[in-house]
Amino acid sequence: MYKGHIPCLTTYLEGFNLNRKKLEIIFKNLKEINSQIKEMEFEIEELEDLQQFGGSGASYVKIIKNSNLFSKTENHMLKNLEIKETIKTLELEKRILERVIKRIYNALNSLTELEKQIVTRKYIDEKIWRIIVCEVNIEERQCRDIKNRALDKMISVLNVSRRSTKKKIG
């Protein structure tokens, strides 16, 4: 069951000072982010099933649960309300994480083929430099330089996107 909140990775995209190190952290956590999204989908399905069949799997304040202040119908309505709010929260967090991934891949698509190959092999395929060097047939130092320039380009794309969003809001 998904127990977390939106990881601080999303703040790297929406916050200030996006840099290579922060972008590398996001890349290294893409699989985890995808797993979190999938887990959220499972939890939303479970909550919808509970809601549909009137299950009591949702956790709510024990005082309300155990008190006689509310009728059975009112308690059921409170449970459904809590389930709806939990579903809304999970759906919002899921959309935010999906946007992070879309923005990363959009920035990745702005790179040249060679830059994209090097960045993809390094971060998504998690290959070591020795293997990357053999696959792209370029010296390691050049590969590292290309990777750094590529990350800088991606940061530039992501920052432009962030600035235009702020202008629309502000």
Helix count from the secondary structure assignment? 8
Distance from first to last alpha carbon: 37 Å
Structural class based on helices, strands and sheet pairing: mainly alpha
Rg, nearest Å: 22 Å
Unreliable stretches:
57-64
Q: How big a fraction of the residues is strand?
A: under 5%
Averaging pLDDT over every residue, what do you get? 81
What is the 3D shape?
elongated
User: Percentage of helical residues?
Assistant: over 70%
Sketch the topology as an H/E string, one letter per element.
HHHHHHHH
Largest sheet: none
InterPro entries: RNA_pol_sigma_r3/r4-like
Organism: Marinisporobacter balticus
Protein name: RinA family phage transcriptional activator
Keywords: Coiled coil
Quick rundown:
By secondary structure, this protein is mainly α.
Task: Set down the secondary structure blueprint.
Elements: H1 9-14, H2 20-28, H3 30-53, H4 62-66, H5 72-109, H6 113-124, H7 129-136, H8 140-169
Helix pairs in contact: 3-5, 5-8, 6-8
Keywords: Coiled coil
Protein name: RinA family phage transcriptional activator
Organism: Marinisporobacter balticus
Structure in words:
- It comes from Marinisporobacter balticus.
- Keywords: Coiled coil.
- InterPro entries: RNA_pol_sigma_r3/r4-like.
- This is RinA family phage transcriptional activator.
- It is a single chain.
- The protein is 78% helix and 0% strand.
- It has 170 residues and is an all-alpha fold.
- It has two domains: 1-109; 111-165.
